[in-house]
């Protein structure tokens, strides 16, 4: 069962008794404002709520429905002023985020790995205990906020995800056909997408595999048709978007990479420095240091896998297929000669991400640079 977690920090005014932030009443008498923390552990059909005070004592627990309206109504009925609401990134996070934000609640989406690591220390794993653990986690400030995508980015991401799904299913069906006929001694070999079906029918012409092959080939034909529709849609969206057109001036970056970067980054201002984009997408090496041990490992592979794969494909195209010279390609070729092709591709993918972000911030197009000999002649 998929799970999403919401964390709420609430502030409540009460009498002097207890700890809290000191304030003053209308009569000038000092009062205390106590801070409350709440955790919402969200599953597919229900939500477990736990509220604790600043000393960690549980003050309220309730099982709620999954609808954002029901959750926000119950939180409002507590008659407290919310200081912060945290939502664990997950399948339901965007839906809940939008619903709770519409109720005027200040929300923060929380990084999933941090949440999982904190809750794994608990001896018991239940929805109720998870809600308590989340509330305590918020009480001590152990969370990392993440960006929640805008509706435009969410819609674009849906198209990209659907296209990737159809591509994977198409590949699965083709592999299944290859394996099926190979069991009977028929080897398909390398064929183009257009020649795939005629070649299969040619091989099995004298066999009794037509019933099974016809069903799989029909499924493949339908998947190709729908995949092509989404592919055409992405091309049209990229052409209509000024930022994506600017991205496509970078060699190796086509409509798919441009739109994936557009949807994944969403708001470029959330990266204070362009060079942090590579680390965000898991394209920087892991660092392991303890005492006298200091090792640099493989790339972390954290962050968005679709974006990382798209940048990797763009780097492959630039280094192996693009013929036109550019300072970026010349740099990648030098890295390839020094450290090998694979490391050069990773370094180039990381740099393409940095360049795309900087182009987005500055509103500029790609700078191809000048060949060293051309620069010398112009001087």
Would you give an account of this structure?
This protein has 379 residues and is of the alpha+beta class. Helices cover 51% and strands 18% of the residues. The chain folds into 3 domains: 4-146, Nucleotidyltransferase, domain 5, CATH 3.30.420; 151-240; 251-362, no CATH class. The strands form 2 sheets. Strands 1, 2, 3, 4, 5, 6, 7 and 8 form an 8-stranded mixed sheet that branches. A two-stranded antiparallel ribbon has the order 9-10. A hairpin with a 4-residue loop joins strand 4 (47-53) and strand 5 (58-64). Helix 7 crosses helix 9 (255-265), helix 9 packs antiparallel against helix 11 (305-320) and helix 12 packs antiparallel against helix 13 (341-362).
Q: Name the helicity range.
A: 40-55%
User: How many β-strand runs?
Assistant: 10
- Mean pLDDT across every amino acid position: 84
Q: At CATH's second level, what is the architecture of the largest domain?
A: 2-Layer Sandwich
- H/E element sequence: EEEEEHEHEHHEHHHHHHEEHHHH
Rounded to an integer, what's the Rg over CA atoms?
27 Å
Low-confidence stretches: 8-32
- First-residue to last-residue Cα separation: 66 Å
Measured by DSSP, the beta-strand proportion falls in 15-25%
Shape, please? globular
> Under the CATH scheme, which class of the largest domain?
Alpha Beta
Total count of domains: 3
Helix segment count? 14
CATH topology-level name of the largest domain: Nucleotidyltransferase, domain 5
Largest sheet: 8 strands, mixed
Structural class: alpha+beta
